[in-house]
Design a protein that fits this description.
Keywords: Cell cycle, Cell division, Membrane, Signal. This is Cell division protein FtsI. With about 650 residues, this protein is of the alpha+beta class. Strands 3, 4, 5, 6, 7 and 8 form a six-stranded mixed beta sheet that branches. Strands 21-20-29-28-27 form a five-stranded antiparallel beta sheet, sandwiched between helices. A hairpin with a 5-residue loop joins β6 and β7. α14 packs across α17, α14 packs across α20 and α16 packs across α18. The longest helix has 17 residues.
């Protein structure tokens, strides 16, 4: 007998009671195999996989919607989040009223930076004439404020970048005026002449821009750019721009938009220690696509690079609704559906002293060779200044150089000899022109000879032959032991930047021992290592150098033992005599407290004419080391730099 379809679907009250649990307000939650939850789960699984062929869809009017259309629309609505990790779950069982059901689904998006955006959405279903449950498709399923044609988008809000602080807690890096020098291609009448004029002007800036501005690709860039584009050539500090404004402002096609950038007080101010902050490079974006976006400011090198994550903070993130305009370009609607507030960066506090650092930078300003000047506070080892002369951008020669110390190492040798009781400052030690050890001849600078003189005179005049003759008194490892007592080769803890603590010759034969006693052979140091050792002599105890105050170093080294008073006082007296009557007399009239020091001329290859220049010393509470690569003699090159440095310090 034929039974009409509607009659086949009719249910008696008893059947409903048996099949379902009746809840308040006429709602029924069903959980059988053919219930709506099966369709909900299939929908969520298909959404994740991008395949909804197992699910039927209708629109709010009841018209059928092809599954492929739903897949396409979900991808379009997802917009910039289409590839973001998404977790979809059903929250409980659907609630059924006759032939409609409502389920709650949870969407959890993992946004850039690991931020979780979670929300619940209602999913409506209807039971078709074939008893199958179908999803009522509408854009609001993806997010409640979406309508057809909308797109979810991401907007990153840059967090305020923190700064690097000096030892007093004041900002070193702060917003400062800059000028972006650029060209408009359509207005440049003679490209070759323009390149010549700009190059001449840039080279006239003082202090000199290092490395020089590279204009080799400027003609190509101008040719490839749109006629009305702004082709940036270089960004100059305002004070540098003003030096050459009259030369470049009248040039046809030049443009000079102003800006502010986070910069140190001067271009050379502790540049290798601080590093730089620049718009994200292409490699930054390629290597860290989840961390950086175009236009982000990124720390490169030095403390800015090492502590970039701390300084830059956490960018804010907003999920917004975009919509294609009449020309198809996706534009923001101004609707924000989720927001994570930016978290400002945290500052990095250093031990640097602005006055001391400026003095160090100025002292090296005229030096064209690779060079470095490090100053530490005698009392506690705080790094007050770390200046680097010309060289590769970001190269921190002051901390990482590995070079022979030359005669500055006689400070270590003398301390070791006196500590062992081998000599006293008044012991007579001959200083001939040459001294031969196992067939190798050692000589003094310019072949000078002093004859039979007190050891203090050998030290003050930097007599190589006297020290090579005394080397056996130290034994195979005595020099290394003395160096370690002054902090060389030590574990200094975490400075916040890489640093070389030195390597002292040990265990060599007679020739190596003789060479090591005058800072040659296999002994190598950094300027920071020598400054720290000099501070140990001045203080009477080695204190590990430190650069960071906050964040506190993860590893903190312990101070060394108290040095033998009679030994350290003797070396102190002899280092004073270097200035009063020895190789450092140019420093005798420096204002302020007495200057102590030791010159050094270090051979770095088989040609004795090729030498590095050194000077180490202290005045009051400031110990320092000056190094000039291939600088010749310490007295001729390093001492004048030390003088400029000390005269720039307050009395």
């Amino acid at each position: 007998m034929y039974v009409p379809r509607r009659q086949r679907r009719s249910r008696s009250p008893l059947t409903v009671v048996v099949a379902c649990l009746v809840v308040a307000a006429g709602l029924v939650a069903c959980s059988g195999e053919d219930g709506p939850q099966r369709t909900v789960d299939a929908f969520l699984d298909g959404w994740r996989k991008g395949d909804l062929n197992a699910v039927g869809f209708v629109d709010p009017t009841g018209a059928k919607v092809p599954a492929a259309n739903v897949v396409r629309e979900i991808r379009e609505l997802s917009g910039e989040l289409v590839d973001a990790p998404l977790t979809l779950t059903r929250q409980g069982d659907p609630e059924v009223v006759r032939d409609t059901a409502t389920a709650t689904i949870r969407a959890e998006w993992t946004l850039p930076g690991g931020t979780l955006w979670a929300y619940d959405r209602p999913l409506r279903l209807s039971q078709g004439s074939d008893d199958q449950w179908q999803v009522i498709w509408e854009p609001q399923i993806v997010q409640e404020q979406l309508t057809r044609g909308d797109r979810l988008g991401l907007r990153r809000d840059r967090a305020p970048r923190a700064t690097v602080l000096d030892g007093a807690g004041e900002p070193i890096v702060a917003p400062r005026d800059v000028v972006r020098v650029g060209l408009r291609p359509s207005e440049v009448t003679d490209v070759k002449a323009m390149v010549r004029e700009l190059d001449t002007a840039f080279r006239a800036i003082r202090p000199a821009i290092t490395p020089p501005v590279d204009l080799s690709d400027l003609p190509k860039r101008l040719k490839e750019a749109k006629p009305d584009a702004f082709v940036e050539v270089v960004t100059l500090r305002d004070e540098a721009y003003r030096q050459i404004k009259s030369r470049i402002y009248p040039l046809p096609g030049t443009k000079f938009p102003t800006d502010k950038l986070d910069l140190a007080p001067t271009r050379e101010f502790a540049r290798a220690v601080l590093g730089s902050v620049d718009p994200a490079y292409a490699e930054d974006l390629a290597n860290h696509p989840d961390r950086y976006s175009a236009g982000d400011l990124v720390g490169h090198g030095g403390l800015q690079g090492r502590w970039d994550e701390r300084l830059r903070g956490v960018p804010g993130l907003a999920v917004v609704i975009n919509r294609p305009g009449p020309d198809g370009t996706v534009e923001p609607t101004g609707t924000e559906v989720f927001r994570r507030e930016p978290q400002p960066g945290q500052p990095v506090r250093t031990t640097l002293d602005v006055t001391t650092q400026n003095a160090a930078d100025r002292a090296l300003r005229g030096e064209r060779r690779r060079s470095a000047l490090v100053a530490v506070r005698v009392a506690d080892g705080a790094v007050l200044a770390a200046a680097n002369g010309p060289g590769a951008a970001g190269e921190n020669l002051a901390f990482t150089a590995q070079v022979p110390p030359g005669s500055t190492f006689k400070m270590v040798s003398a301390f070791g000899l006196i500590e062992r009781g081998a000599v006293t400052p008044d012991t007579t030690v001959a200083c001939p022109k040459r001294f031969v050890v196992d067939g190798r001849s050692f000589k003094n600078s310019d072949d000078f000879a002093l004859g039979e003189v007190p050891f203090r005179t050998d030290f003050a005049k930097s007599c190589n032959t006297a020290f090579t003759a005394l080397a056996p008194q130290l034994g195979a490892d005595g020099l290394a032991a003395a160096g370690r007592t002054l902090g060389l080769e030590g574990e200094w803890g975490d400075l916040g930047l890489d640093a070389f603590t030195g390597k002292v010759s040990a265990g060599g034969g007679a020739t190596e021992q003789a060479a090591a006693a005058i800072g040659q052979g296999t002994t190598v140091v950094s300027p920071l290592a020598m400054a720290a050792a000099t501070a140990a002599v001045a203080r009477g105890q080695f204190v590990p150098p430190k650069l960071l105050l906050d964040p506190a170093p993860a590893q903190v080294a312990e101070s060394g033992p108290q040095l033998k008073p009679e030994a350290v006082m003797a070396v102190q007296e002899m280092m004073r005599e270097v200035v009063t009557s020895g190789s450092g007399t140019a420093l005798r009239d420096v204002p302020g407290k007495p200057v102590h020091g030791k010159t050094g001329t270090a051979e770095y290859d088989d040609n004795p004419e090729n030498t590095h220049a050194w000077f180490v010393g202290w005045q009051g509470d400031v110990a320092f080391a000056v190094f000039v690569e291939k600088g010749g003699s310490g007295s001729g090159t390093a001492v004048p730099i030390a003088e400029r440095f000390l005269r720039a310090l307050p009395d």
